[in-house]
Amino acid sequence: MMRKLIALIALVSAPAALAASQPKAVSITALPDVVTYGAPTTLTGNVTPAESVNVIVAATPCLNPPSRVKEAAPVSVKSNKSDGAWTTLVTPQVRTSYQATAKDASSETVMVQVRPRVTLAKVARHMFRTRIAAAKSFAGKTAYFQKRNPVGWITVKRVQLRFVSSSTDTVVSGKTFHSGVFAHKTVRLLLPQRVVGNCYLTGISNMIHS
Fold it and tell me: Could you tell me the residue ranges of all domains in the chain?
């Protein structure tokens, strides 16, 4: 009789113990949630209740991404047993949504926006050079060389970009150009939203003095 009672208790408690080990929730955040092309962001979250489990992070890129955007394999990371926290670094090539899964629990999605990497340098008197790195070419597109005045930014020259170089996953566009903007003005290069397309945010260069 005692053996039957013990067996019955074991059968009843086993599903309860199994249920207790299942995460009820998993969270995810991205910091920063806007990055420049080539820069990483940190994804963090927590498993509730706290335990050590494999957290799978899946990535979904923007609609119709450039052909150089690689399909990202899911990332597996272990959560801490003490507080359920987990963290991982990712480097999105384009705007990407991330979702974490821990056993049967799934997080909400978090989106990380990406800006093209735009640089601007003065190479000689009235001569400037820009380079733009992204997963797509901007050759033939128009960027805007701007100066800052007391009320905002004013376009002083339209710059038609050219192909510079490429690698497996990156294309560099750019141009060396002349501008008659007066010396000692604060200038920048702008790549507007209609130029960068749906997978990127507006590209803005560093500011320099003319």
Answer: 24-114, 117-209
